[in-house]
Amino acid sequence: MQFVKAHGAGNDFVLIEDLDDTLNLNAAFVAGVCDRHFGVGADGLIRIVRARDADFFMDYYNADGDVAEMCGNGIRCLAKYVADRGLWSGDELRVDTRDGVKAITVERDGAGRVVRARVDMGAPILERADIPMTGSGDPLHEQLVVAGTQLEAACVSMGNPHAVVFVESLATVPFETLGPALETNETFPAKTNAEFAQVLNDREVRMRVWERGVGETMACGTGACAVAVAANLRGYTGRKVAIHLPGGTLDIEWTDSTVYMSGPAEESFEGALGARLLSLLPETTSTKG
Predict the structure, then answer these.
(1) What CATH number does the domain located at 128-257 have?
(2) Is the pTM of this model over 0.70?
(3) Among 34, 77, 155, 220, which one carries the catalytic annotation?
(4) Any residues with CB less than 8 A from the CB of 47 and at least 6 apart, and which?
(5) Active site residue 71
(6) Phi and psi dihedrals of 185, rounded to 5?
(7) Which of 1, 37, 70, 169 could disulfide-link to 159, CB 3.0 to 4.6 Å?
(8) Would you kindly state where each structural domain of the chain is located, as residue ranges?
(9) Domain 2-121+265-278: what homologous superfamily?
(10) Catalytic residue among 34, 71, 155, 225
């Protein structure tokens, strides 16, 4: 089975082409492929399938094998994959996800290869039950006790849940302790992605992210969108903001109707999966349901 390793601002993925929807992936296979010591190594796995009501379907899994709704950096890598290989022509395409269909516009270099993409990420979800969160109160000012520390989180969904904590300095945050504790806090029945953000000015924010089912990653597209939305609603920034992550910068714009995310997409290498990993696959055929 062939694969391509790609990344968006350091957030890396294994992409597997399955246009005719013949594979049924399971958690053991995904976790094995994403393992950085015994597999290819990645933050997530993307199966690329033809879609009925869009151009492609992104079947996305976190590194632990759990199915996820959406991945902003991953969908840019998918767009690069299909455009560079001639599976799609033109500069605009529509990709179905578990969070609905996303419209993507690609940017190419002089040789015609995709180097960046702009994704319509949809409107943020700000209703507590839909994020989802238990309890009551304003999710943009959620008081939490995490690993013995009192935090105020701005909670937003971009199709997947995010808890954004604004801090004076990222350098002083005990990230490796607070990140996993916030991810698994009982307030979030589906767990949450945890972002710690430092506002630099009204146009720039620096952040680190602890992704649900993965751990710290170099970048998170939906997380950057959530941070931008929360920063604007808190009055810290305007609606156009550069989000600086360890792996690079994502440009976010929140209009009246949607959030746009722009950022790079790059392929690292390609190869074939070995027999040990393939033995983890079930034998039944898949469905996109």
Answers:
(1) 3.10.310.10
(2) yes
(3) 220
(4) 16, 18, 23, 25, 58, 59, 60, 61
(5) yes
(6) -60, 140
(7) 70
(8) 2-121+265-278, 128-257
(9) Diaminopimelate Epimerase; Chain A, domain 1 (3.10.310.10)
(10) 71
